[in-house]
Amino acid sequence: MSINISPQLSPTEDAVLYEDKNHKVVYLGTKGIDKGSVDVLSYLLVDNGEAILIDPGGYYLFPHMVQKVSKYVTLDQVKFLYFCHQDPDVCGSIPMWKDVCPQAKIAIGELWVRFLPHFGVEDIEGSVFPIPAEGTTLPVGKFHVEVIPAHYLHSPNHFSLYDPVSKFLFSGDIGIALGNFNYLVVNDWVSHLDYLYTPHRILMANNKALRAWLSKVRKLDIEAILPQHGAVIPKNSVEYFFKFLENLKCGTDLISI
Amino acid sequence: MSINISPQLSPTEDAVLYEDKNHKVVYLGTKGIDKGSVDVLSYLLVDNGEAILIDPGGYYLFPHMVQKVSKYVTLDQVKFLYFCHQDPDVCGSIPMWKDVCPQAKIAIGELWVRFLPHFGVEDIEGSVFPIPAEGTTLPVGKFHVEVIPAHYLHSPNHFSLYDPVSKFLFSGDIGIALGNFNYLVVNDWVSHLDYLYTPHRILMANNKALRAWLSKVRKLDIEAILPQHGAVIPKNSVEYFFKFLENLKCGTDLISI
Predict the structure, then answer these.
(1) Is the pLDDT score of A34 beyond 80?
(2) Is A57–B118 a contact, with Cβ atoms under 8 angstroms apart?
(3) Given the DSSP bridges, would you call strands A14-19 and A23-28 parallel, antiparallel or unpaired?
(4) Across chain B, which distance is largest between two alpha carbons, in Å?
(5) Over B12-81, what HEC string results?
């Protein structure tokens, strides 16, 4: 078993973050691919020959992603295309992924299923795995990935994923960091706070929603938090991150009427 | 001057809802076009030869929309392509609209500008009119359309539009109604509540956000509320609707930790 969550990792290169004989988690080197748009972090999880692609990203990311995913699995090994919520930076490539992985189930919050055709996806009904509001598990290889509600953070029907093998928490938009930094893994927590603060204040609905999510994820044994934007939060910073969220006033907390 | 907000209007046919010598508001007959997806209501506002297209909708709606818009204006008269927020049911057609209306400015909340390339839009920077969080006005013909903050309802950067000529409030997702009904204009308020209740409870972030919006729009002289989903709320039901929102517990109000 080997965990590779190192501050030396490049955000523009794919890297295996966890590996054992039957299980692998890969970062797909997605940062900086599409210069004009907000950066995304996409991941691939493989267990015993079955894969889940986590947050495939926008339209222009697709060629890069197909090339990277194909380094690690054949496309017919992809069992789930998972989307933490409905935004274009997560789902913009969905019509092409549906074409190249026709066997894969599109896993997304049930609220958003009928919104997906608006991306240009045909016959969504037969391909979808609607995630219920209370969460679920997704069978990948010999394990189940846990799907944890993260509603209103920011989407009304948003989820995080927990992999019980690597102990990685794929947090979706929670943990988003924006700004001019060039690392994949947080090394200096205090300086990273500058990149976390503003997007969390704007995007996250309020402190109550954050605490509801914390009440679920604090029970987990976590090796690293892997958000969909920003940088990976390693084990030694996880409790700092949770404290930051626990005390943050954000979203509707900041509205005065 | 003529207002045409009648319960006899068909949701599947385009109709002029307001008209005077220099000003026109058109419903574009968008309900039911794309069977597999959530229905949208799209509108065109024209003043003195300049137009704003309000919430163009998803990918598959585009051919219908181009045909309908072209009945009322030439495509080079479209000055603004307005998107109340970033979801695919609002923005999925954005790459094609940018191609056929290269002169038009894409008006969307500033938070979402860098998310738009993920729909497959190129060179967004030169085409965009970023709406600041506090709202703005958009000059169309001889008037200004008012852009009113509607944050967290549901999107963190979501807006409503007010047309001071027709006195129509284009409310975006607020007023969403889902279910098996077949009218464009609400006639029976009590039965319409059944279609409003569940989507508002799930999508709207909380009662505080609703009250913040109400504190802005209650100052306006409103002839009708035109949401992006559901049905138009005529003048005689506007205060019922505001009372419904004022008292609604929704979103994070319903979370228990």
Answers:
(1) no
(2) yes
(3) antiparallel
(4) 57
(5) CCEEEEEECCCEEEEEECCCCCCCCCCCCCCEEEEECCEEEEECCCCHHHHHHHHHHHHHHCCHHHEEEE
CB contact under 8 Å between B57 and A118, yes or no, is yes
The 3-state DSSP class for residue A163 equals: strand
Residue-wise burial string across B33-68, b where 16 or more C-beta atoms lie within 10 A, e elsewhere: bbeebbbbbbbbbbbeebbbbbbbbbbbbbebbbeb
What mean pLDDT value characterizes chain B? 96
* pLDDT band at B82; cut points 50, 70, 90: very high
Per-residue pLDDT reduced to its tens digit, B2-54:
999 999 999 999 999 999 999 999 999 999 887 789 999 999 999 999 999 99
Contact assignment for A118 to B88 by CB distance below 8 Å? yes
CA distance B104 to A115: 26
The verdict on a CB contact (< 8 Å) between B92 and A151 is no
- Residue A125: is its pLDDT beyond 90? no
Q: Identify the band that residue B229 occupies on the pLDDT scale cut at 50, 70 and 90.
A: very high
R_g (Cα) of chain B, nearest Å: 17
Q: Do B114 and A86 touch (CB under 8 A)?
A: no
CB-CB under 8 Å, B117 with A251: no
Note the pLDDT tens digit of each residue in A144-176: 999 999 999 999 999 999 999 999 999 999 999
Q: Tokens for B101, please give them.
A: 């209306």
Q: Which of A36, A114, A211 lies at the smallest CB-CB distance from B125?
A: A36
Contact list, A153 vs chain B (CB under 8 Å)? none
Across the range B119-124, mean pLDDT stands at 90
CA-to-CA distance for A76 and B162, rounded, in angstroms? 50
Percentage of chain B beyond pLDDT 90 is 95
Distance from CA of B19 to the nearest CA of A (A): 31
Buried b / exposed e along A78-114 (16+ C-beta atoms within 10 A): bbbbbbbbbbbbbbbbbbbbbebbeebbbbbbebbbb
Shortest distance, CA B23 to any CA of chain A (angstroms): 30
Question: Contact at 8 Å (CB) between B153 and A154?
Answer: no
Which residues of chain A does B251 touch, with a Cβ-Cβ cutoff of 8 Å?
Answer: 152, 156, 205
**Longest CA span, chain A:** 57
**CA B33 – CA B111 distance, rounded (Å):** 30
DSSP character for A132?
Answer: P
ipTM (interface pTM): 0.94
- A145: CB partners within 8 A, 6+ apart: A45, A52, A137, A138, A161, A162, A163, A164
For A111, the closest of B37, B202, B212 (CB atoms) is B202
> Could you tell me the pLDDT band of residue B162, with boundaries at 50, 70 and 90?
very high
B91 phi and psi angles, rounded to 5 deg: -110, -5
